[in-house]
Amino acid sequence: MEYKLFIDGQWVDSGHRLEVTNKYSQEVFAAVPAAGQEEVDKAIAAAQRAASVMADMPAYRRSEILARTAALITERKRDLAETIAIEAGKALKFALIEVDRAISTFTLAAEEARRVHGETIPLDAVPAGEGYFGFWLRRPVGVIAAVSPFNFPLNLVAHKVAPAIAAGNAVVLKPASTTPITAVKLCEILESAGLPAGAINLVVGPGSTVGEWLVTDPRVDKITFTGSPPVGEHILSVAGIKKVTLELGNTSPVIIAPDADLDLVAKKCAVGAYYNSGQVCISVQRIYSEKGISDPFTEKFVLASEAMVVGDPLDERVDVGPMIDPGEVDRIEGWVEEAVDGGAQVLTGGKRDEAIYWPTVLTNVEPEMKVVDQEAFAPVASVIPYDDFEGALELADASDYGLQAAVFTRDIQRVFKAIKRLNFGGVMINETPAYRADHMPYGGNRQSGLGREGVRFAVEEMTNIQMVAIKLDG
């Protein structure tokens, strides 16, 4: 199937085409043009023209467009889910959930579009403000470059595009080159929903070219990026003076206290570690279990891991499909082999089947091993015993990352110790780090990024505050 770029309300072609593969069969199923510098320039120029149109559009109209988008996504739910399963390798059962979440994200944005407002400020709270009336407004930043990853090709695009539209901005979207077709279909939907020409523009291509042209262009007012810390750091070094939101990953820790329900925790951790083949920024990776319960928990976790169904993601029984490309399987295979050479033990998994890496449980790992210290982004989790809860908090927090962490306990004292001690953007209690509701503030501390997503919070990131002070006596 041949697709096109979307620039200034028109579907356009370019010379070179990128092939998109079915990640399970590795067969080419679609092609999309690779944007050159000319296409990127036209997309930014179109967004710049549309930014004033969007800023002047009444809030209720932006809300209506977003609500229609949600309705059209609902009508195309099955097609979108199957596209995600094919091009991203995500199991269809989870792809369907992703579509439902995107519907929710656009619905939330439709509601939030009607709530973008400022507030008054009592300027006379200080002597210099006597005789003045003050208030502030939120104004759209203008042109937003949205650079999205492969692992949620619909909902992470939605988390960038929907709040941008709600706030009255225009967008140039660069989806991952491995999963661009879902974004193409979303642009078709946005066009049908009545979004003005230039308000959404789609360009596809490598980060080294298309991404670089976008983030360095002075006409772009904000960058929103999800990806790796090295790329995020590079963006900050070349972007110039513009607003930037970065979501950069995690080595998600889970702490299991001795009073936790081990059967429940084992099942939750298995899903949290292996859905989307572990290719989620908040996938369960480091599991710290108290020594007294470590053996029974590990046994239950291994059984839950082995119960995950592996295979073709279009099969609705399947839980775990292929990774995004065989090179990523090579990488995690090397990491696990390196850990085993260092004394780690593979309790289950540790094998591959072409593009699939089987759900893997490790033990006897060391903190400096890559499978513990770096973001695995693969279906690999390690179980690590601990002596006392305070020590577990220290181990969990001993990371350069700080996106989300989790604690399973019924003890309220442990809960508040964890909240106080863990330097993470989110602390989940009796749920895994993989938990996310689409309206909550979502983002990380430390090397996990800057800023927050979640529709209301993304709107705040995508607007500027304009202060107004009025001298009352003329």
Describe the structure.
The protein has helices at residues 37-56, 59-75, 77-88, 92-113, 155-166, 181-192, 207-216, 229-238, 262-274, 291-306, 326-341, 370-373, 389-397, 412-421, 455-461; strands at 5-7, 10-12, 17-21, 28-33, 119-121, 132-140, 143-147, 170-174, 200-202, 222-226, 243-247, 253-256, 286-290, 345-348, 352-353, 356-357, 360-363, 380-386, 404-408, 426-429, 449-450, 463-471. It is of the alpha/beta class and 474 residues long. It has a seven-stranded mixed beta sheet, sandwiched between helices. The protein folds into two domains: 5-248 and 447-470, 3-Layer(aba) Sandwich (Aldehyde Dehydrogenase, Chain A, domain 1); 253-438, Aldehyde Dehydrogenase, Chain A, domain 2. It is globular, with a radius of gyration of 23 Å. It has 15 helices and 22 strands.
Structural category is alpha/beta
Q: Which CATH class of the largest domain?
A: Alpha Beta
> What does the average pLDDT come to?
97
Total strand segments: 22
- Identify the CATH architecture of the largest domain: 3-Layer(aba) Sandwich
> Over the alpha carbons, how many angstroms does the gyration radius reach?
23 Å
CA(first)-CA(last) distance? 66 Å
How many helices does DSSP assign? 15
What count of domains describes the coordinates?
2
